[in-house]
Amino acid sequence: MASLKNTPHEPSIRKLLSSDPSYKSRMGILNASITNAACRLEKGTADELFGDRLTLTQSQIEKYVSCHFSYYCRYVLKLRDAKRASFDYSNIGTFIHKVLELFLKETGKDTIDADRDIDKIRSIIRREIEEQSHLFIPKSKESEGRILHLLLRFYRLASLVAVNLCREQKYSRFMSRLYEAEFGKNSKLGLAPPELLLEDGTTVSFSGKVDRVDTYRQGGRMYIRVVDYKTGAKSFSIDDIKEGYSLQLLLYLFAICDTKSEYFRRLIGCEDGDVLTPAGALYISMAIPRLKREAGDSDADTLEAASGEIKRSGILLNDPETLHAMSKKLDPNILAGVRVNAKDGSLKGNALVDEEGLALLKEELGKTVCRIAEEIKSGNANAYPSKRGGVLACAYCEMKPFCRVDQMKASEKKEKENET
Predict the structure, then answer these.
(1) Closest among 124, 130, 116, 214 to 161, alpha carbons compared
(2) CA-CA distance, 180 to 58, in Å (whole number)?
């Protein structure tokens, strides 16, 4: 039945099998909820599974926060939803990231005026997409209508973001130094993974990559800004940190600033004695905006207007000099909504955090990761799905065939437990 899930044939096949005496009891089991949503591994089993070192990713943490049972199915039992290899919307992140990385590397040493060179930007993006498509897409599929539609969508999206990034660079003294910067033992940059120590002596490390690392050197400090591209809408919130969401970018920002790697320091242009200082962590939402096109608007006009709708969210160091270095014009679009107060000329915005606030945020971040890691290690695998943005975690969970828990009751039980 798993192979028929969500297909037009599923209801008919279910009805047919349920009416067959030889399959009726089996279908009853298949449709039943598990008898008890509470699930916990014995301590000895959990200790044997995780040992004294636990390596996590943002995806794993968010999976555990949304539903402990789903995490254990996916990352401990290694259960997977059988999917055919294909090139579709789920590939958009990897594909667009690569195209933008190559675009920025090619144009990094040149001055491309986003206000005058839009045709040049589009030409480079078109070429990079054509070259990358041969690597991502089997040759036999390249001429399919669906694939051609996807590539057109990718081209439009990448062009929007590229124009936006060029406009950012035009008025910025921050330099994009690294792309797809990897943390961990396999890091070619010498970047150790962020690590934390639990009370029982377990070392918790965080593995992964950051899309872009930008730097700005001034007054004996090397300011670090990390950037992550998101293919959908992304709105950063401090409350997300406390719940276990959106930890990755800040963890990497602080890990870079704490690095002891002399190789990495030389790589980003540090001089002796320079202090690595966190300047910001930004998400760039790469969602195609909806605009009303007026009569007479050219494609270039529409592209420029749409590019201006690319949103940023995150945190920025509340320091006027650093913010001016990020955007000479103090563009709110570039500065995640930070604006100049018309009354007194000060800078205002939810993204601003001073150095003391960053230190407290770093501490809160560590506590959150440790709390979640300790719960994972305890063997808690309860099937109590959480809600986020009003949507139950079960809505898009691949583990439904293994769980079949009464979703609403489980969610209500978890909420009552949290209240007590």
Answers:
(1) 124
(2) 16
